[in-house]
Structure formats: C-alpha cells, structure tokens
Amino acid sequence: MIVDLTAPPAITRTSDHRYYLTLPDGQKWGPCPGVTSILDVIDKSGPLMHWASGQTADAAIALHEQGWPELEAIVGREGVKKALMERRNWKRDEAAHVGSAVHAWADDFVKGNLPKVTPAIENRIKAYAEWWENSGWKLRLSEFTVFDTKSEYGGTGDLLCFDREGRTVLADIKTGGKVGRKAYESEVLQLTAYSNAEYISPMGGTTVYPMPQVDRWALLHVTEEGVREIEVNIGDRERVAWYAALALYKWMQATKARL
Question: What is the Rg, in whole angstroms, of the alpha carbon atoms belonging to the chain?
C-alpha cells in the first residue's frame, strides 16, 4: 500500500453522512456508512405510524375549530386532506430544528462559550445549563466523530465525559419524545456502535485517538420540563444486535447493487 505521509490524521464526514478516516501513517479508509444510516434497517413503522396518526388527529381538531366547512368550500375535499396529511411533515421539521438548535447550543456551552439563546429553545437550554452545573460531569469531548476500520462504519456523537465518580460516560442528547419516555431500540444500538468503534476524533479535528473504554451509557432527554438522564445498559446482547443490524444493512446494499 502506498501511503501519503503528508495527509493530516482525521475523520471526515460528507453531507450525506459517509465517513472517511486518515491515520497518522497515511492509511485511509472510506467511504463508509454512518451509524444512523445503518440503523434505518430497523423497523420503526409502529411508533412512527402512531405518531403520524396522532398528528393527523390534532390537525383535524384544529381545522374543525377553525371552521372546516368554510375551508373545504375554499380548497375542496382534497385540499383539506392534503392539509391534514402535511401536518406530520411540518411538525417533524419543527422538531428537527429545535433538536439541532439544542445540540449546537449544548456543544458551545460545555466548551465554556456563551452561545446565543433563541426563544424557541430558551426553556430547554435553561434546563440543560442547570443540569450540567449539578451533574458533576467533566467534559472529555463534545461533538465528536468515530470510525471503525474492521467493520467499516463511522458516526457522530454528542458527549464523552467523566461522571462525578470518575467513570467514562458516553451520552447522546435527545429532544424528541414525551417526558418520561424510555430509550428506543435504535438509540441503544447507536450508543453501542459508538463505543465499539476503534477511533474517535473531535469534530473537524486533525487528531485521531483510540476509542477509550466506556463504563457507562446514557441518553440526556432535554425537554422544557427539564433534563432526564436515561441510563442505557449495553452488553453482549446489544453488541450482537448492532452487528446484526450492520450485516443486514450491508446485505441490503449488496442486494440493491445486483438488481
């Protein structure tokens, strides 16, 4: 293999979440799929259908309160139907915007910056700031990328910290779902994949480190009511499930290429 010793070590990510790795000796890997793309193989139709039907029901109630007959007279029956069906899309986009804003603010905050507060996330970030100050956690990395050369995948994580007992904790920030919810299966496997990767690097950095041993996993559910640490247990069963999802993803990609 010919190696390029002038290339800085890095884990990079494209806009379509494909990952590349360059090591200090110049060896390169990629493009490799991202963890979230791989986990799309998990069937999420049940929860998503329940959520979408709930959004449609909310839209129907709102339209009725605003004068359904008058609206139907203007846009017709198909227009009303489209309005009901589209609600799930703008609610999803609204939730995605809030999630991105909270992630960006939290990344700045734990690095000691004073990020700008927007009204849409004000209550959430106040809750996050209070939680962080009381958590006893100490930052190791915020917004990082990981890469595994053996199984050929990459990913982007939120927090790697020491908790108040000195344990290494890997955490992901989540803003979706109801207060008191449990960890979703895909979120458990997401943390599994990150902690099983070989390498870790600060986002956009030019230093690649071996992935440290993780002692504890958690989701930080950030809502307007506060921040809740959702403990996640990861063992052999979760690792088997992650590698099964990865194998299924690779099989589906290979099958798609043959069609």
Answer: 21
